[in-house]
Design a protein that fits this description.
The structure is a single chain. The chain is built from 5 helices and 4 strands, in the order αααβαββαβ. By secondary structure, it is an alpha+beta fold. Strands 1-2-3-4 form a 4-stranded antiparallel β-sheet, with helices on one face. The chain has one domain. The longest helix has 53 residues.
Length: 210
């Protein structure tokens, strides 16, 4: 049975009809929302991976500095029963130079020739010499010393608490503003959490026998 001519024309018209402007706009809106979500997820993934990498590097740097302070403390051996009036505490340079109870930079060895220790590190966790600290520092080490048991002549050994803090700037960029790793920033009890991330390690060092 054949359809009437008017019915055939109406069916052909409906089959060749295109998308309306509203349908196109709706499709573009859905695509835009999806693309924005994908880009946000990608940014969060990059930020998370970078934060994890920097945290791992900061942990390695903090442990390195704890070992350096423990090694420096090996110079602290007198007084003892055989030498009750002598004291070589000044030979432990990292322990004897800072202001106790305050945060600061472990800067005694900086600028010496050759430089053996640095409070500033690059993105790969390498010590930076004093000439590169301002421009290339990614990680900055601070430390604080506090007496737990003051040394008493001749037999009471001293005991010092050592706090090591590693700071690095927030954000995806690996190039923080030059000059941020300074004694002024290191002296802050609580670094600004909107600008810096931080990692802390604590240990104790004890006066040894000769």
């Amino acid at each position: 049975m054949r359809l009437p001519r008017s019915s055939r024309s109406s069916s052909r018209t409906r089959s060749t009809r295109g998308y309306t402007a509203i349908e196109v706009l709706m499709a573009m809106t859905v695509m835009t929302i999806g693309a924005a979500a994908v880009m946000s997820m990608q940014k969060a993934s990059i930020q998370g991976n970078l934060d994890a990498r920097k945290t791992d590097m900061a942990n390695s740097i903090a442990r390195m500095w704890v070992e350096r302070i423990e090694r420096d403390a090996m110079q602290w051996t007198l007084p003892n029963a055989q030498n009750p009036t002598l004291n070589n505490f000044a030979g432990a340079l990292l322990l004897s130079t800072p202001t106790y109870g305050a945060w600061g930079l472990p800067s005694y060895y900086m600028g010496s020739s050759p430089e053996t220790m640095s409070y500033a590190f690059d993105i790969l966790g390498r010590d930076l010499p004093a000439t590169d600290v301002s421009a290339n520092t990614v990680f900055c080490v601070n430390y604080r010393l506090q007496w737990l048991v003051p040394q008493a002549l001749p037999l009471e050994p001293g005991l010092i608490r050592v706090d090591v803090r590693v700071l690095w700037t927030r954000g995806i960029s690996n190039d923080p503003a030059p000059g941020w790793c300074t004694a002024t920033n290191a002296a802050q009890t609580t670094p600004d959490p909107t600008e810096y991330r931080s990692l802390y390690l604590t240990t104790t060092v004890k006066q040894g026998a000769q």
